[in-house]
Amino acid sequence: MAEGNINVTPEQEVEEVISTNEQRAIRLEKLEALQAAGNDPFEITLAEQTITAAEINERFEELENSDVSICGRIMTWRDMGKANFIDIRDRSGRMQVYVRINDIGEETFAEFKKWDIGDIVEVKGFVFRTRRGEISVHAKEIRLLSKSLLPLAEKYHGLTDTDTRYRQRYLDLIMNPEVKDTFFKRSAILRAIRKYLDGENFIEVETPILVSNAGGAAARPFMTHHNALDEDFKLRISLELYLKRLIVGGMERVYEIGRVFRNEGCDTRHNPEFTLMELYQAYTDYNGMMDLTENLYRYVAKEVLGTTTITYNGVEMDLGKPFERISMIDAVKKYSGVDWNEVNTLEEARALADKHHVEYEKHHKKGDILALFFEEFAEHHLIQPTFVIDHPIEISPLTKKKPGNPDYVERFEFFMNGWEMANAYSELNDPIDQRERFKAQEALLAQGDEEANTTDEDFLTALEYGMPPTGGIGFGIDRMCMLLTDSSAIRDVLLFPTMKSLDK
Question: Hey, where are the domains in the chain?
């Protein structure tokens, strides 16, 4: 606070040396006293919030001496006897409030002095600037709206324990206002994405989360059971196959932003449920998807951050320049020295993997091993925006083959900061070829690959009615939010990340 060092009331001094349970008991006694006096704050159903703290700061010149009504949580308290300064925090930020006995009356002031840090209040008063120059609200009325029964953690130093922050996000948001800024920015990113796609005549749709066939990606699904139908279902791992059904139906430009679920591990870039955006556009290919990706990323960065140059963990990335395009074969050659154009057989691929200490499984084919080389040697070098194009067919069961080179497909992955940010294809629309690809996936499944796709007969039926040439792409929204908010872990951009139970 600008008005000097933070002091606390005698009741709050006691809180420094007693346990949380004892503090809760004291606060419960205060609540019971309020209720006995007919002043139960939990019976209040409506408060008046005419303005936010940020708006007062932004519009001070016009609002000085004007009456306002603000609401928020008491975060700090400086007791000067018959006059007190408190800081309250609302969704937009903090505001200092001057509370004086002569203005609110002795009875109200006496009750006010019994309140605690963490309580939620309504303040009616006028805007002014203190002698030390801090914009504040001079209270004429103050009302307790909600009683905090638990003391705020780490009152003066913030909540820093990451496990507690993720498990108790509500406490994290109270104590660390920059966390709230991250999620406000995430919301702005989603608005900007929708605004851009709406301007390109895409329509937003919703497709099933509970599915009988979880296809469209290489991932292990979560299983569940529908009691009424007595049928097993899966949680979707992708949005792809239903959205392409809509392309068959003539919707031509569709997208969906939604949660998908993959039964996999957790780390700084993976959470079992995460937000994916997929879009599909008829009459274009993966080159069109590259153009769309460049334009979308530039637009969102400019709209949300005001610049196309972003900094993540001290590293600057330039979205304003044309994004690099490099084939997977060329990326592997550049960073490992191995020229895959000279690899003709599976035996040669395995020998190279052994020589370069690249681990592979016995069911992996030549193209799989190329992808493993890419992950081992090239991926972490791709810091600036880069499209890695032309993947091996073995890892791309839903993608069109490259004309004249059937071992590879028209696919790209978009990388920034060494992370995969998006995955796109020229979509396979040949139902006969697609059935053969599904058969190959079924064979992998039989060999123990739990991430292999299964045949989706209804999707094949849709393709037999005819799907136009189509480009499609999937964006990892959470990773995009990580980069644009400079957040070190995916859990920092998920309000409620998946956590292991405390009793495990």
Answer: 10-152, 177-323+384-492
Q: What pTM value is reported for the model?
A: 0.90
Residue 153 DSSP SS3: coil
Residue 276 to residue 257: CA distance in whole angstroms: 6
Which uninterrupted H or E stretch holds 93? Answer: strand 93-100
Residues 94-152: pLDDT tens digits?
A: 999 999 999 999 999 999 999 999 999 999 999 999 999 999 999 999 999 999 999 99
DSSP SS3 for 259? strand
Q: Which residue has the tokens 């083959």?
A: 401
Distance CA 289, CA 472 (A): 7
Please give the single-letter amino acid code of residue 423.
N
Coil, helix or strand at residue 228: coil
Point out which residues pair with 315 in neighbouring strands. 312
How is residue 105 written in tokens?
A: 């009356």
- For 428, residues 6+ apart whose C-beta sits below 8 A from its C-beta are 398, 399, 400, 434, 437
> pLDDT-based confidence at 216, cuts 50/70/90?
confident
42 CB-near residues (< 8 Å, 6+ apart): 146, 147
What is the CATH code of the structural domain delimited by 177-323+384-492? 3.30.930.10
Beta carbons within 10 angstroms of residue 402's beta carbon: 17
Q: Which residue has the tokens 């070098």?
A: 381
CATH superfamily of 10-152: Nucleic acid-binding proteins (2.40.50.140)
Q: What's 277's DSSP letter? A: E
Calpha distance 194→300 (Å, rounded): 10
Burial of 255 (0-12, 13-18, 19+ CB in 10 A): buried
Q: What is the 3-state secondary structure (H, E, C) of 374-424?
A: HHHHHHHHCCCCEEEEEEEHHHCCCECEECCEEEEEEEEEEEECCEEEEEE
Confidence label for 357 from pLDDT (cuts 50, 70 and 90): very high
Q: Is 73 helix (H, G, I), strand (E, B) or coil?
A: strand
Residue 278 near residue 243, CB atoms below 8 Å: yes
Hey, how many other C-beta atoms are within 10 angstroms of the C-beta on 22? 12
The 10s digit of each residue's pLDDT in 49-92 is 999 999 999 999 999 999 999 999 999 999 999 999 999 999 99
Element (H, E) at 182: helix 177-199
How many angstroms separate the Cα of 144 from the Cα of each of 8, 27, 303? 18, 14, 39
| C-alpha atoms less than 13 angstroms from C-alpha of 407 in its C-beta half-sphere | 13
Describe the crossing of helices 457-465 and 431-446 by its angle, rounded to 10 degrees: 170
**Which residue type is seen at 183?**
F
Residue 454 CB-density burial (10 A; 0-12 exposed, 13-18 middle, 19+ buried): middle
What is the rounded distance in angstroms from the CA atom of residue 86 to the CA atom of residue 89? 10
